[in-house]
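Deliverable D2.4 — example input (structure tokens):
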């Protein structure tokens, strides 16, 4: 009968050692890394894939996850920290609401608008995401047009191009969302007053106060004899300023004015022809 080896002198790959597998008594132990019950004398596997009831390591728990997350957040890009802090158990409707409210608050802080605009915009956004037509649309752009409507209703001199300039949305798509918002929520179209946009665009083009006065005069005549409902306010202002520059012989091309106004050259030429036709008869 072979010698019974102990755990100290037995190795499975040692061919010089010999064991009588039929007569020796097994000494089974639990191998934690592999999850098996094996004999430490002959290597016989009694059971595999066992469920370990106790473990000397650190157990998995929510507190462990939180501590690991806090340590890992120190070495992560700050732009990703907010994404890691999001509660993964939130529904998509709750996430949409959080994303939209954060975007509205960001826009109000950027343009320095009051708390009333924040409250009004959030109220419109909450009603908009409940409409079937907005459930599959972009959340950020929906919140932006809600903010734009609230600002325009309170006669703040903002253009929709300024609102969406931080994202890769086109002004045409933004206006489609804007008109869809008014039709779905049955909102009254706010009165358009392009006059407050004139000083801002003239300052960007490097024009003096005299051009601002001439542009306001031309705009008042144009609005008196033309219905501007549905027209882009920035396009009207750009056409008025271009017409004033031509009258005062100030060198500002259509491409330069359209670039600073963030509109197309075609829109500028169309508004200029309308303004020239009306103001040419009444000036």
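Example output (designed residues):
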């Amino acid at each position: 009968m072979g010698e019974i080896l102990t755990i100290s002198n037995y190795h499975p790959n040692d061919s010089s050692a010999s064991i009588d597998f039929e007569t020796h008594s097994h000494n089974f132990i639990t191998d934690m890394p592999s999850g098996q019950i094996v004999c430490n004398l002959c290597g016989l596997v009694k059971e595999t894939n066992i469920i370990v009831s106790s473990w000397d390591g650190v157990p998995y728990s929510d507190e462990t996850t939180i501590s690991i997350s806090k340590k890992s957040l120190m070495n992560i890009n700050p732009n990703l920290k907010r994404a890691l802090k999001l509660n993964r158990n939130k529904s998509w409707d709750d996430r949409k609401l959080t994303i939209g409210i954060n975007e509205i608050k960001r826009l109000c802080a950027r343009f320095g608008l009051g708390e009333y605009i924040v409250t009004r915009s959030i109220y419109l956004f909450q009603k908009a995401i409940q409409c079937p037509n907005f459930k599959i649309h972009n959340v950020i752009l929906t919140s932006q047009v809600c903010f734009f409507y609230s600002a325009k209703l309170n006669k703040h001199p903002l253009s929709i191009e300024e609102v969406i300039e931080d994202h890769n949305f086109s002004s045409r798509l933004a206006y489609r969302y804007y008109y869809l918002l008014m039709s779905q929520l049955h909102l009254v179209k706010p009165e358009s007053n392009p006059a407050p946009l004139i000083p801002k665009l003239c300052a960007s083009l490097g024009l003096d106060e005299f051009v601002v006065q001439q542009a306001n005069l031309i705009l008042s005549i144009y609005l008196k004899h033309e219905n501007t409902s549905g027209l882009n306010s920035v396009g009207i202002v750009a056409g008025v300023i271009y017409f004033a520059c031509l009258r005062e012989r100030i060198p500002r091309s259509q491409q330069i004015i359209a670039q600073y106004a963030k509109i197309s050259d075609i829109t500028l030429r169309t508004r200029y022809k309308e303004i020239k036709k009306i103001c040419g008869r009444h000036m």
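The domain at 90-185 is CATH 1.10.472.10 (Cyclin A; domain 1).
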